[in-house]
Write a structure and sequence with these properties.
By secondary structure, the chain is mainly α. Helix content is about 65%, strand content about 5%. A two-stranded antiparallel sheet has the order 1-2.
């Protein structure tokens, strides 16, 4: 059909994987399998890298990335394979977090780049990523205004609070809020 490219996903950012597999002699089905596996791998690796940058241990980051890339709601979407390419979402969220929490304004351009890539991979996921970043911004402003995000926007950093008396592991209030923030963002993406 003519003039229908804008009605759905156009795969401008992902067609190269399929095209490369076809160029190397793969039949349609095998090229699709390569395209599908590359999308899942990119989603896992990008989420793993972001969670490591947020300071999670290797095991925790691996579990989080596995849940992001291969959770049951994701696996149930095999009829909507275009939703596999979500690798730009964690990268955009991390870049936006750098802008909000650390005032690294170069992150605006980096987040914009990853949002654009996500739009080119899947327009639906790009729109929802935009909603997620807007919700992050609003939540960040409300929480920092209320004083819950100590250590950000010029507020003094809190003292460490031990997890339990005599524990060598202690988390600051800011670290606890970071975990709550990430969990809330994951729930928002799922919903």
């Amino acid at each position: 059909f003519e003039k229908v490219l804008g009605f759905s996903d156009n795969h401008f950012a992902t067609f190269w994987v399929y095209a490369a597999a076809r160029a190397f002699g793969a039949v349609r089905e095998d090229a699709f399998l390569v395209w599908f596996l590359v999308g899942n791998t990119l989603s896992f690796v990008s989420c793993l890298w972001v969670l490591k940058r947020f300071g999670f241990s290797a095991i925790a980051a691996s579990c989080g990335a596995f849940a992001f890339a291969f959770s049951l709601p994701v696996l149930h979407q095999e009829g909507h394979a275009q939703l596999v390419y979500r690798f730009a979402t964690p990268l955009a969220v991390f870049a936006w977090w750098e802008v909000l929490a650390h005032r690294r304004f170069i992150g605006i351009f980096i987040a914009g780049f990853w949002v654009a890539i996500q739009f080119l991979c899947s327009i639906y996921l790009g729109v929802f990523l935009g909603y997620l970043l807007a919700a992050m911004s609003l939540s960040f402003l409300v929480l920092s205004y209320a004083g819950y995000l100590s250590g950000t926007l010029g507020a003094p950093k809190p003292k460490s609070l031990p997890l339990k008396a005599g524990s060598a592991d202690s988390w600051s209030v800011g670290e606890r809020w970071r975990i709550v923030w990430i969990i809330g963002s994951v729930i928002a993406v799922i919903l």
